[in-house]
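User: ok so my PI wants both of these folded by tonight, can you help

Assistant: No problem, let's get them done. Here's the first:
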Amino acid sequence: MSRTATRRRVLHAAALAALSLTVFSPAIAADPIKIGSVVSATGSTAFLGDPEAKTLKLMADQINAKGGVLGRPIELILYDDSGDANKARTFATRLVEDDEVVAVVGGTSTGATMAMIPVFEDAEIPFVSLAGAIEIVDPVRPYVFKTPHTDKTACQKIFEDMKGRGIAKIGMISGTDGFGKSMRKQCLGVVGDYGIEVIADESYGPTDADMTPQLNKIKNTDGIQAVINPGFGQGPAIVTRNYAQLGMTTPLYQSHGVASKSFVELAGPAAEGVRLPAPALLIADKLSDDDRQKAVVTEYKKAYEAATGEPVSTFGGYAYDGLGLLVAAIEKAGSDDSSDIRDALEGTKAHVGVTGIYTMSEEDHLGLGTESFRLLRIEKGDWVADGAD
């Protein structure tokens, strides 16, 4: 064995021993197709990254059990950045230089994603992000794609619903984290298109534990008909509890960034009546039989909950779609060449995922519109469809 080959093997083994997990079925003898991932399986955003990691491992096992892709197994090389964008970039470099992956799915947060983008763009390796901010795909970068709806699309879906209910004057309370700042900006940019005016605009920090002062200002602003909270993490749950404690009764809209049972549990009874845009996955059992997504979301939900004993979340769904899009692109290209995979991703047409039905193009590396969102309401700790007519 050459010194170079020996060094690569040692580095690879060391990497796996540190913070990676490789999912590989020895039953398939052909050389594996290496797909990398960096998610936040632990740390402050583990409620997002943990279901992503579990979903990716589950899918890799399922794919390999069915014979792999192009007759070859998927080797999933998965790193945990613990919610640290600097670690994410370090692992991105490792995936390129040491692990020699052909594509990557991951990036739990916008911050981690933005830190990794230059690495994958420079290496010309397709990267499917699992984070929400529109800046990930706007402007379009040749090798960067994403699966979650953008924050702009979430704003548009919320404002569509508000307009349908005759709401014209609203308050806004936004997180100052990367997601919250981005969504606030996007909401302010499109709100006028719906004849709606923001007449109170407050914010809170990532570590704030009480938002009652900001909410009191909104409550005491004459004319408020609804409130929207761009944010994710624990902040929106605190906002929701404080909202109820202050006796605020105007409709409260949250972002798609809290579309999981974790938010309902954190907010408790105060979550009752909260509205938010979310993928069909959260109401899988309530979809009509002719819904194009029903079979996909039902199969994923059943498999995930059976494997983990935990309720499915939209964040795991983003990972499901990310790896699903990559596998479909590899099959379409008939190749594991990174450039061929990139071209096939960009040419995705009507790919049915759990988040929506993806159709991408040279100008659109997401491929989802407002129609792929469902406007939901939390009722008795569960999700129900609640879009305005």
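One down. Here's the second:
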Amino acid sequence: MEEEFLLLDAGSAEPAALAGKVLSVAGEHPWRRSGGGLHRELFQTQVEAATGTCTTLAELRGHLHGARVLLAAVARDEGLELVSAGTPMLAGAAPALSEGERFRRIGEMYGGVIADYQSCGCHVHVGVADRETAVAVMNHLRPWLPTLLALSANSPFDRGRDTGYASWRMVQQSRFPGSGVPPWFDSAAAYERQVDRLVDCGVLVDEAMSFWLARPGVGLPTVEVRAADAAGTTDEAVLQAALTRGLVSTAEAALRAGREAPRAHEQVCAAAVWNAARHGLDGPGVDVFEERAVPAVQLLDRLVGHVSGALADSGDLAEVEDLVARVRRMGTGAERQRRAAMRGPRAVLEMLSSQTVWEQPPRTYRESA
């Protein structure tokens, strides 16, 4: 998994461009020998932690939590707070791009669209046999990607205002070419031709870049799912991982049985992404199979049911059901941010920084059970 975080000034709650200092002091990822790493992101106000390869949810939780605790401790020593949120609540000064030729090219290509894109996501890689399998699995994932977004919604604010959206990050991402649910591809070669076409059209920097919510891993034998906002808590990141692995395993079983992925209509998928970004779990979603609006929580229940066999096989079903129930009780990250905002921006910062290194948000910001 890859988690992107914001660095906020502890006094002003505005983004602080000190990623280089934080990463330098933090040193190596606690599980670097398993492949974990700490990295720069697009802006100097962001850092990324990538776990090593994990086979159990317990192992993954350890990797995620260890990196969060390390980065948060270093940040606090620098007068900062590490927060896991899809967008910052306050804008602050115009952020500076991180150093590097690729970041420079991205800045030049996208201009003003990238200028305020301090957006953070939670990306899940699941190992598969080969790239052909990755593309076939990706087709099966298409109908479920909006529900993963709705579950993760954690970015309701922009420049100090409530946007009315649960995931403003996804609204920002939709401004880039090729965003949202990926098209249906009949082969890995077809996928690669489409990416090459977008590069040739001058709208992607290179073949390793795309904005689709799922893609074959770049340089890795994986399916990479990029639907989720940055997860407020470690448990919510684990939940995204468990559901994603369940979706991949379920898709692989369907492929072995000779079942082709449904060809959900691209505009209906786009409507589903918009609804997920607008409402999260607190409102309507779009059933892409029936092409109509239904309660988003109903879609979440269907998703869990769809992958329940795979979750049972991996021993994760009970934990996933518990984590889903917890999110429904506490509210999504966006809902918790809004509750905290009733006390002002400082309360949002305190809640976000606390829950980033805790398994759950402080009780003050949870619905009473």
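The chain has one domain: 2-354. Residues 2-354 form a domain with the Creatine Kinase; Chain A, domain 2 fold (CATH 3.30.590.20). Good luck tonight!
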